[in-house]
């Protein structure tokens, strides 16, 4: 099912070139370039309304860019539907907490294994064998993921009874279940208190070490971002401001101005609302 | 040629009635985002109550009209406060199911109490039909068209030129902000629903004086109103008028030249095509405004 | 969940001994009608409970099935064991076409466009006299020879087992689909369309699978109905069938397999009890629909599965955890 063209070591996993989108004449994102290499952890930061979530939505097919292209593992993905992009291994979470709230934690993660347990109509109605084995494997892996996230005791809890912190973990669990090549998390620590955010950071590090090689992160929690990222891209007003290592970014005047100067007041709504 | 002119005139009259019948539906949808599947039953109740007030109680048309419309406004208010209020914010499905239940209830309760026979509301205007060249029209139809125009304009002015209208528009743009600035939003929701109900009922009573009221007519009225509203774009007043005229004219010509038995199919086929190709209605620009 | 599975099996066993315990043709007749409605309710529930959209035009597939079986048996002389499956297949083909059009829409638009399709079919059935005999309908849809030979009770028993077979096949197909990956994907779409897409689910294709099976089942029910009442007219598209289906699914509990079965049996009983007063019956149905939406959104299954809704702390929209069965 998946394209088996392994990218050459030099080519990045994800390459976006001059991505642009306008909403009703307003430029939300302009000429945005981004690369994520294999095994790399990249964070996308910037003030509210800078266009980070809009970029996520363009990369994952929820918005269609008005200009530019994105390639994943050497293949153009702009113009594909969201599910088609997910099937290529680019899996995302959402800024607004999004899980299947009437299902239990375990059921949520099992459902996340959709791509591993797909079956033909013949299998659905007549011969169960092969799909039963796939389903069993999915259940086992789901149990592992639930343990890994520290949700073991709440495995049978319906998602709408979870605390905010557990919900954010569950979201990551559902995304992990889809076995991403590149995992994109949109503000996964939003709404968490400091202790929860620290715990989340720990889980994120474990995940990166054991479950998924490459990560693209949008996050406001600077401790988390600085702690995990190989490279950071800063956006403001729909454009890339600067990119570099965490140390370079911390020392940058432009970043300080974007966050503390007039840019901090720019609360445009362009980047919001995609989750709904 | 003369026949075509007569079809044109009939189509325009029917079209004006269709537009009127759809007003309440498009108002409630445009402002509240509630799809009211009981709309046709509110229309029907307007006609049946109008018949009770005129033919049974012997009131004159104007008094009866005011009483019926007021009573239906109260009904709409109660429906919103005691039912729709409870599922507000639970997504579309709950209100759709709720109003489907309400429509089944109202239609059959009326059928049970009043029976299936047509109930004619005495027309306020009678007299010889008018001959405009080759075209024949009755006075009551022309009067009803005039009242339709007045009602459409009136509803438009209420929403765009009065304080309550402003509060309505504010509430439906951002209920939280409206609440914070002192608007009692739950009353606004109820008032809007009541206004939509009153529009449906006045259309029902008016048309019952030309045709007749019938307990089982609600489903068909709802369907036609949906056709009109989808043609013109959900929530748009000018769209409802245009949609009504388009439907009225297409039906008149289809019935005149192709076949009378299949007239109703015209609207449904249009709806299917429009939802497929222009889901925001033929005049999408208008659909943005309430 | 094994609870639902074993209760389904229990119902089936009970159904198998029923006609020998009860020799009363009137009761058997009610059981046959209940069987037809169980299939219809299961079919509508696939759309309402698993696609998560509300169809008001489900009589379209019931009607297509009924006309298909009537025409295939009267004009082409095919026996019932061929006409009913063919009726299902034909309804399924229509399901593919109608689904491909309607499933692009959501919410109220879906409701209205499905209703429009059912109305178009009703008008076609009334006016295409060459095919359907118009408002006169098709009379004399033949009974199987075995029924004619078996006398009153025997004939009802044969019909009963046919209906039971149809119910078993329908429930089995629905059960397999719901438990399958497609069923889980449908639940994912219903719960959260965006998350579903981000884990690789194609919402449209998933909905098409469920919608098509739903059409097939309604076609079975229509085909069998045609033979059982031996007459098919444009009334098969009428709204009161639709109202019955809605209330069965809602009252029993949408999104569970057992709920609509329960709902169908109860509603058929209720309909029979109030047979003399159709208006009163439907008045009551309307009230029940409203009450279910307001007070028990998951129907009887919701009440059975958890503590009563009025004891729940919050007005959580749904408390049923067995609806997805992603197990």
Description:
The complex is a heterotrimer of chains A (276), B (290) and C (327). With 276 residues, chain A is an alpha/beta fold. Chain A has helices at residues 52-59, 82-87, 105-112, 121-125, 129-148, 164-177, 194-210, 222-228, 246-250, 253-260; strands at residues 14-23, 26-36, 41-45, 67-72, 75-76, 90-92, 182-186, 214-218, 231-236, 239-244. In chain A, the strands form two sheets. A six-stranded mixed sheet of chain A has the order 6-7-8-3-9-10, sandwiched between helices. Chain A has a four-stranded antiparallel sheet with strand order 2-1-4-5, covered by helices on one side. In chain A, helix 3 packs parallel to helix 6 (164-177). Chain A is globular. By secondary structure, chain B is an all-alpha fold. Chain B has one domain. Chain B is built from twelve helices and two strands. Residues 285-290 of chain B have low confidence and may be disordered. Chain C has one domain (2-240). Chain C has helices spanning 2-21, 25-51, 59-74, 80-102, 107-127, 129-132, 145-149, 151-179, 181-191, 193-198, 203-229, 239-252, 258-273, 278-295, 299-305; strands at 138-139, 231-232. In chain C, helix 3 (59-74) packs antiparallel against helix 4 (80-102) and helix 12 runs parallel beside helix 15. Chains in contact: A-C, B-C. Chains B and C meet through helix 3, helix 4, helix 9 and helix 11 of B and helix 5, helix 12 and helix 14 of C.
What would the keywords be for this entry?
heterotrimer, A: 276 residues, alpha/beta, Rossmann fold, 6-stranded mixed sheet, 4-stranded antiparallel sheet, 21% strand, disordered N terminus, disordered C terminus, B: 290 residues, mainly alpha, two-stranded antiparallel sheet, 12 helices, 2 strands
Task: Write the topology of this structure.
The complex is a heterotrimer of chains A (276), B (290) and C (327).
Chain A: E1 14-23, E2 26-36, E3 41-45, H1 52-59, E4 67-72, E5 75-76, H2 82-87, E6 90-92, H3 105-112, H4 121-125, H5 129-148, H6 164-177, E7 182-186, H7 194-210, E8 214-218, H8 222-228, E9 231-236, E10 239-244, H9 246-250, H10 253-260
Parallel strand pairs in A: 3-8, 3-9, 6-7, 7-8
Antiparallel strand pairs in A: 1-2, 1-4, 4-5, 9-10
Helix pairs in contact in A: 3-5, 3-6, 5-6
Chain B: H1 2-32, H2 39-56, H3 61-87, H4 92-114, E1 130-132, E2 135-137, H5 139-161, H6 163-173, H7 175-180, H8 185-208, H9 218-232, H10 237-257, H11 263-277, H12 284-287
Chain C: H1 2-21, H2 25-51, H3 59-74, H4 80-102, H5 107-127, H6 129-132, E1 138-139, H7 145-149, H8 151-179, H9 181-191, H10 193-198, H11 203-229, E2 231-232, H12 239-252, H13 258-273, H14 278-295, H15 299-305
Helix pairs in contact in C: 1-8, 2-8, 2-11, 2-12, 2-13, 3-4, 3-5, 3-11, 4-11, 8-9, 8-11, 9-11, 12-13, 12-14, 12-15
InterPro entries (chain C): ABC_transp_permease, LivM-like
Subcellular location (chain C): Cell membrane
Protein name (chain C): Branched-chain amino acid ABC transporter permease
């Amino acid at each position: 099912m998946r394209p088996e063209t392994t990218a050459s070591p030099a080519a990045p996993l994800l390459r976006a070139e001059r991505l642009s989108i306008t909403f009703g004449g307003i430029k939300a994102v302009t000429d945005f370039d981004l690369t994520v290499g294999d095994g790399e952890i990249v964070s996308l930061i910037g003030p509210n309304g800078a266009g980070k979530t809009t970029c996520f939505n363009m990369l994952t097919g929820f918005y269609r860019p008005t200009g530019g292209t994105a390639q994943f593992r050497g293949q153009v993905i702009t113009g594909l539907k969201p599910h088609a992009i997910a099937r290529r291994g680019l899996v995302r979470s959402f800024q607004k907490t999004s899980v299947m709230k009437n299902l239990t934690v375990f059921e949520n993660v099992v459902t996340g294994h959709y791509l591993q347990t797909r079956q033909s109509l013949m299998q659905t109605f007549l011969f169960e064998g092969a799909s039963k084995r796939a389903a069993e494997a999915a259940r086992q892996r789901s149990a592992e993921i639930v343990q890994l996230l520290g949700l073991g005791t709440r495995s049978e809890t319906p998602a709408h009874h979870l605390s905010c912190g557990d919900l954010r973990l569950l979201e990551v669990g559902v995304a992990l279940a889809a076995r991403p090549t590149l995992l994109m998390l949109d503000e996964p620590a939003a709404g968490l208190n400091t202790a929860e955010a620290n715990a989340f950071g720990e889980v994120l590090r474990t995940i990166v070490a054991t479950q998924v090689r490459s990560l693209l992160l949008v996050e406001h929690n600077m401790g988390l971002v600085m702690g995990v990222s190989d490279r950071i891209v800063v956006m403001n007003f729909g454009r890339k401001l600067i990119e570099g290592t965490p140390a370079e970014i911390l020392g940058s005047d432009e970043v300080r101005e974007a966050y503390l100067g007039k840019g901090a007041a720019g609360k445009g709504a362009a980047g919001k609302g995609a989750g709904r | 040629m003369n026949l075509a002119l007569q079809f044109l005139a009939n189509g325009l009259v029917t079209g004006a009635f269709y537009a009127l019948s759809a007003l309440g539906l498009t108002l409630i949808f445009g402002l509240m985002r509630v799809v009211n599947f009981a709309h046709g039953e509110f229309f029907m109740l307007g006609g049946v109550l109008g018949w009770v007030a005129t033919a049974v109680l012997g009131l004159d048309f104007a008094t009866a009209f005011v009483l019926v419309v007021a009573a239906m406004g109260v009904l709409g208010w109660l429906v919103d406060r005691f039912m729709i209020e409870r599922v507000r914010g639970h997504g579309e499905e709950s209100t759709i199911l709720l109003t489907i239940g309400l429509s089944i209830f109202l239609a059959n309760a009326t059928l049970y109490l009043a029976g299936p026979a047509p109930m004619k509301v005495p027309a306020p205007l009678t007299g010889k039909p008018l001959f405009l060249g080759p075209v024949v029209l009755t006075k009551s139809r022309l009067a009803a068209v005039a009242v339709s125009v007045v009602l459409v304009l009136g509803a438009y002015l209420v929403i765009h030129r009065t304080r309550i209208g402003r509060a309505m528009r504010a509430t439906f743009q951002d209920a939280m902000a409206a609440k914070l600035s002192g608007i009692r939003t739950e009353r606004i929701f109820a008032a809007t629903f009541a206004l939509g109900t009153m529009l449906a009922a006045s259309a029902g009573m008016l048309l019952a004086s030309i045709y007749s009221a019938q307990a089982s007519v609600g489903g068909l009225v709802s369907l036609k109103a949906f056709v009109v509203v989808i043609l013109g774009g959900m929530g748009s007043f000018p769209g409802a008028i245009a949609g009504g005229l388009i439907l009225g004219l297409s039906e008149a010509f289809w019935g005149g030249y192709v076949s009378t038995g299949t007239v109703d199919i015209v609207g449904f086929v249009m709806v299917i095509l429009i939802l497929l190709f222009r889901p925001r209605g033929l005049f999408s620009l208008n659909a943005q405004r309430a | 969940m094994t609870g639902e599975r074993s209760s389904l099996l229990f119902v089936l066993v009970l159904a198998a001994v029923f006609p020998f315990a009860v020799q009363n043709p009137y009761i058997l007749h009610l059981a046959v009608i209940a069987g037809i409605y169980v299939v219809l309710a299961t079919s509508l529930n696939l759309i309402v409970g698993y696609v998560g959209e509300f169809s008001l035009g489900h009589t379209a597939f019931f009607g297509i099935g009924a006309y298909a079986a009537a025409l295939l048996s009267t004009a082409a002389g095919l026996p019932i064991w061929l006409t009913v499956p063919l009726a299902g297949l034909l309804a399924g083909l229509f399901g593919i076409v109608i689904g491909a059009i309607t499933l692009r829409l959501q919410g109220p638009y879906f409701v209205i466009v499905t209703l429009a399709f059912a109305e178009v079919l009703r008008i076609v059935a009334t006016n295409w006299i060459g095919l359907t005999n118009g408002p006169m309908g098709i009379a004399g849809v033949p009974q199987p020879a075995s029924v004619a030979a078996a006398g009153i009770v025997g004939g009802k028993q044969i019909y009963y087992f046919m209906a039971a077979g149809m119910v078993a096949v329908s429930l089995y197909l629905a059960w397999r689909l719901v438990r399958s990956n497609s069923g889980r994907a449908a639940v994912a779409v219903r719960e959260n369309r965006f998350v579903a897409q981000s884990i690789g689910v194609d919402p449209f294709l998933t909905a098409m699978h469920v919608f098509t099976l739903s059409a097939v089942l309604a076609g079975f029910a229509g085909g069998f109905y045609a033979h059982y009442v031996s007459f098919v007219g444009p009334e098969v598209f009428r709204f009161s069938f639709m109202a019955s289906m809605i209330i069965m699914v809602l009252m029993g509990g949408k999104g569970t397999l057992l709920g609509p079965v329960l709902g169908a049996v109860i509603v058929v009983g209720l309909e029979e009890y109030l047979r003399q007063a159709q208006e009163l019956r439907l008045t009551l149905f309307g009230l029940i629909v409203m009450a279910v939406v307001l007070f028990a959104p998951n129907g009887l299954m919701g009440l059975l599965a958890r503590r009563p809704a009025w004891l729940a702390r919050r007005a959580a929209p749904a408390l049923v955890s067995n609806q997805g069965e992603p197990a």
